[in-house]
Write a structure and sequence with these properties.
- This protein has 203 residues and is of the alpha+beta class.
- The chain folds into two domains: 89 residues, Periplasmic binding protein-like II (D-Maltodextrin-Binding Protein, domain 2); 96 residues, Periplasmic binding protein-like II (D-Maltodextrin-Binding Protein, domain 2).
- The protein has four helices and nine strands.
- The strands form two sheets. The chain has a six-stranded mixed beta sheet with strand order 4-6-5-8-3-7.
- The chain is elongated and about 60 Å long.
């Protein structure tokens, strides 16, 4: 499981509630940011953010989230350009981000703004990207669940919500295994915790 998903979403109280509902199930949660393999690493279930298609894995999507463009405090967000030009901004990107990516920023009733993120850093995890933005490296496109607290406290400036596909968070297991009782019980707890399947904290 990604460590930021656990810290922001699963949390200890959900684990306690799950144990109360299923006292016969022993729950062990390992939170790490490396890419894991449920078979090789011996996990019953893994949780991934925006997982790529993988025929070795099956599962279900249990949470949606928005993508937000954030920047260091005091950084001025470019305004709409005449003629539809794309604004260039210094950015921190995941190492898997394609070079031709363009951010579509929607701000309430304003005309959407197109931003071309010029990479100053490419990093391997969302947490590293967030930390680099907090350190002043540049703007970034990050899930709301990762930056909502930073925006609320003024540690990050909110430039707008990305007008593209939402973040998807999936619970996955090996396609070689049937869904066991303990996996089914865990999924029931998770889906009870997020009945609307969307992260709802406001910024």
């Amino acid at each position: 499981m990604s460590s930021f998903v656990y810290r922001k979403q699963v949390r200890d109280e959900n684990a306690v509630d799950g144990h109360a509902g299923y006292p016969e199930v022993q729950l062990e949660i390992i939170a790490e940011d490396r890419r894991t393999d449920p078979v090789e690493d011996g996990y019953d279930l893994i949780i991934r953010v925006d997982p790529a298609p993988d025929e070795r894995l099956v599962g279900r999507r249990f949470l949606y989230d928005e993508r937000m463009i954030v920047a260091p405090p005091g950084t001025i967000r470019p305004g709409p350009q005449t003629g539809g030009e794309v604004c260039v901004v210094d950015a921190v990107l995941l190492h898997t981000t394609p070079p031709d990516i363009v951010w579509q920023v929607g701000m309430d009733a304003e005309k959407p703004i197109q931003l071309w993120p010029r990479p100053v850093l490419r990093l391997s995890s969302l947490l590293m990207v967030r930390d680099a933005v907090l350190a002043g490296a540049g703007a970034a496109l990050l899930p709301k669940l990762l930056v909502a607290d930073d925006i609320a406290t003024g540690r990050l400036a909110y430039w707008g919500t990305h007008a593209g596909p939402r973040v998807e968070i999936w619970a996955l297991q090996s396609s070689r295994r049937l869904i066991g009782a303990k996996v089914r019980a865990f999924l029931e707890v998770v889906e009870t915790a997020f009945p609307e399947k969307i992260f709802t904290t406001t910024v």
